[in-house]
Design a protein that fits this description.
By secondary structure, the protein is an alpha+beta fold. It has helices spanning about 1-25, 30-40, 45-60, 65-90, 95-115, 120-125, 140-160, 165-180, 190-210, 220, 240, 245-255, 260-270, 275-280, 285-300, 310-325, 330-335, 345-350, 360-365, 415-420; strands at about 335-345, 355-360, 375-380, 380-390, 390-400, 405-410, 425. It has a seven-stranded mixed beta sheet, sandwiched between helices. A hairpin with a 2-residue loop joins strand 3 (about 375-380) and strand 4. Helix 9 runs antiparallel to helix 13.
């Protein structure tokens, strides 16, 4: 494939050079060009028209986008060059005047056949595939290629952002950027998409510190949902949580600076080189290495305190639910860590939850006067809370409690995850 690309760029460069140099000569009305046009019986003003077209065609062949303009450039170059050869032959010009236009016309034909959007010659070579997944121009093919890497991208985004719903948003933004980009020359689509997703996550992490999320929709806690939350649930399983690094590590990752987190996740968890990471975090490879090293050191020296015992957890959870139902803002604040984070999975977001809320005041405001029907429950043997409707648990509240304070609350509404938690409502 590399040899095919080399041949493509070699022939394309030749044709582009011929078009650009010929176009500039035509626009300058060089005497030999004027004489040639007169010999062929064409008016001199045609040189200006041809000059503009050749310059535009040469630029289109070298541009990373505009595939349709490239097609017109190929067609125009081939017919212009073959027409020049025929005109020179008809006028009795020497062999050199005929050979070179034909040679460049064949180069244009070869460049067109080797182009990534079609790759006709590549299809005839053993061991190659015509138009690999990363070389797609139509929407359906792009979508198919993107879906092959969606699980990987969600895994990358989750480890960077610590929230499945926010990770889904990052993956969607990655798709939008992919759909608007010309990836015809991309050799490694997985790496290209990972780079784009990492940049999206870095932007989210940087904005997160200054952003205050809106409170959750009251309907999530107070009234049954009108529709089955799994009705339009994607059939693909969320591989992110199946092999996720765990809530403890996510909690520690939240303490890292955005660039440190991105460098560490990409290098240590996804084996990307620092040369690839450097442009993502706008650093040199050496600086990117130092970012990952600092993050690694923090992870080694930071030991998250153990969770509270079951009885203490139940006391904290029940006090939280009671304060929420009674609208006791001060009591809620006393139970929440100043840096508490409230996260919701993609299904809970569809039911009206915000993807993420940070800070004790924001989380307390979210729960104040709500959770009227939420009950204390065991989630996979750990004390948490659950909200039911129609005799079915619709949302689980997973609490992370340290030193008697709630440091994280995860809203889980994915039906399969709820089933796996084996939820038991406590009396």
């Amino acid at each position: 494939m590399k040899s095919t690309n080399a041949a493509y760029w070699a022939t394309t460069s030749i044709v582009a050079f011929v078009l650009l140099s010929g176009g500039m000569a035509s626009l300058a009305h060089r005497p030999e060009n004027v004489e040639g046009m007169a010999r062929l019986g064409y008016p001199a003003y045609l040189l200006t028209i041809l000059g503009f077209w050749k310059v535009l065609g040469g630029m289109a062949l070298l541009a990373p986008r505009f595939p349709r303009l490239k097609e017109w450039a190929y067609a125009g170059a081939f017919f212009d060059l073959t027409g020049a050869a025929w005109s020179h032959a008809a006028s009795g010009a020497g062999p050199a005047h005929i050979f070179w236009p034909l040679f460049f016309a064949l180069a244009a034909l070869a460049s067109w056949a080797l182009r990534p959007q079609g790759r006709i010659i590549g299809a005839l070579l053993p061991g190659t595939r015509p138009y690999e997944n990363q070389r797609v121009i139509d929407h359906d093919s792009r979508a198919e290629a993107f879906e092959e890497h969606r699980a990987h991208l969600r895994s990358v985004a989750y480890r960077m952002l610590g929230s499945t719903s926010v990770a889904d948003d990052a993956v969607q933004e990655t798709w939008l950027r992919f759909s608007r980009s010309d990836t015809s020359a991309v050799e490694n689509l997985r790496g290209w998409l990972t780079t784009v997703a990492a940049r999206v996550c870095l932007d989210i992490l940087r904005a997160r510190r200054s952003r205050r999320e809106d409170p959750l929709d009251e309907e999530l806690f107070d009234t049954p949902a009108g529709a089955d939350p799994a009705e339009d649930f994607r059939q693909e399983r969320d591989l992110i949580l199946a092999d996720a690094v765990g809530q403890a590590l996510i909690t520690v990752l939240d303490t890292l600076a955005p660039a440190e987190r991105v460098a560490f996740v990409l290098h240590d968890l996804f084996d990307m080189s620092f040369e690839e990471i450097a442009p993502i975090v706008a650093r040199t490879p050496l600086a990117a290495r130092k970012l990952a090293s600092r993050a690694r050191q923090r992870l080694r020296t930071t030991n998250p305190p153990p969770q509270e015992d079951a009885s203490r957890r139940r006391t904290v959870v029940e006090a939280f639910l009671s304060a929420s139902r009674g609208g006791d803002f001060a009591a809620l604040l006393s139970l929440l860590d100043p840096d508490v984070v409230l996260r919701a999975d993609s299904i809970a977001v569809r039911m009206g939850a915000s993807a993420e809320v940070r800070g004790a005041h924001a989380v307390a405001e979210t729960f104040k006067g709500r959770a009227q029907v939420a009950q204390t429950a065991l989630l996979a043997g750990t004390v948490g809370a659950a909200w039911s409707a129609g005799g079915q648990v619709r949302v689980a509240f997973a609490f992370t409690i340290m030193d008697g304070r709630i440091t994280a609350i995860d809203l889980l509404a994915d039906p399969e995850r709820l089933q796996a938690l084996n939820i038991t409502v406590l009396a």
